[in-house]
Amino acid sequence: MSQRLQRAFIGLACLVAAPLCLAQASGLTRTLVTKADVSVANREAVVARVEVSPGSAAGWHTHPGDEISYVQEGEATLLMAGQPARKVAAGEAFVIPAGVVHNAINHGQTATKLVGVYVVEKGQPLATPAPAPAP
User: What is the pLDDT of residues 99-134, one digit of tens each?
Assistant: First the structure.
């Protein structure tokens, strides 16, 4: 296989894999479990396993729809624009409305693992990096 063809194949593989594992920051991984249409026009539900590594942050970002997450393991500090910081731990859940700038920081020694359900606009990136909100 020529070098040019190998590069094209690698590039295509990256494009195909990107929706399966989207990371805003090096400490965050999001792995697609499934996605399906919902009863709201032009929306889909995306279910993903989300992990924030110890000592890492998800990075400030938004979603083109609502996020509903359940913390399976660990804990994190949830930061949402316009709201006080909130600790979330295993067994707890949270909801982030569409378009709200937010971040999660894992100050612990173990990974924070979540199940994230996103009801988002079809054809939009699941997450978009955003600047930190003004204090």
Answer: 999 999 999 999 999 999 999 999 999 999 999 999
| String of DSSP letters for 38-81 | -SSTTEEEEEEEEEE-TT-B--SEE-SEEEEEEEEESEEEEEET
- Which amino acid, 24? Q
> What is the distance between the alpha carbons of residues 122 and 111, in angstroms, rounded to a whole number?
30
Beta pairing, strands 86-89 & 28-37: unpaired
73's CB contacts (< 8 A; 6+ apart) are 90, 110, 111, 112, 113
Q: What is the pLDDT of residues 6-31, one digit of tens each?
A: 544 444 333 333 333 343 447 999 99
Q: Which amino acid is at 94?
A: F
Q: At 128, which amino acid appears?
A: T
CB-count exposure of residue 13 (10 Å: 0-12, 13-18, 19+): exposed
**DSSP designation for 91:** T
- What's residue 135's pLDDT? 83
Question: To the nearest whole percent, how much of the chain has pLDDT over 90?
Answer: 79
